[in-house]
Amino acid sequence: MHFFIPGQRDEWARLCWFEHAFTEDECDQIIQLAKDVEKQWTTTGNNISAIESRKSRIAWISSTPQSKWLYEKLAEIIMDVNNERYKFELTGITENLQYNESDKFSYSNWRQDFAPGSCSTRKLSLFLNLSDQSNYHGGNLELFEEKAEIPRSQGTVFIFPSFEFHRVSKITEGVRQSLVSWASGPTYR
With CB atoms 3.0 to 4.6 Å apart as the test, which of 8, 63, 94, 162 could cross-link to 114 if both were Cys? Predict the structure, then answer.
């Protein structure tokens, strides 16, 4: 699997992506998995409301026989990128997958996925765009001070260190569906 990595190969890559890592059919299957799960407003790991920093509807997709293929494919992508680029010590995907549904009333301010408590072992964040880019306007993934033009195509996977500040720009029209996962490992020393 070949990933696009901004900058030269010998430079630190803040963000890696792989366009069309998932097919349209696979994206539809993931959306269907989320339809069977109750959606809720975004909260932090400590169940404290995070409406001020991020607002979207989410559903947690646990590892089941129906989602096993998804967990396995995400783990393979994460391990390939980590082995090629980051070389973090990882134990795998240890949290449920987060399905996100964002519309013009949703927003996301700058934040990190790494934090004290239950998020302290997150090493890599993975973002999968499930929506066809023609179904929404806005909703661009942004990393703080990153200058690379980031693709929006359906099935594209983005991976970046969980300590990177990131956000998703405001949706101006339509609905954007995405999936988020985190690869964890021993705490930083």
Answer: 162
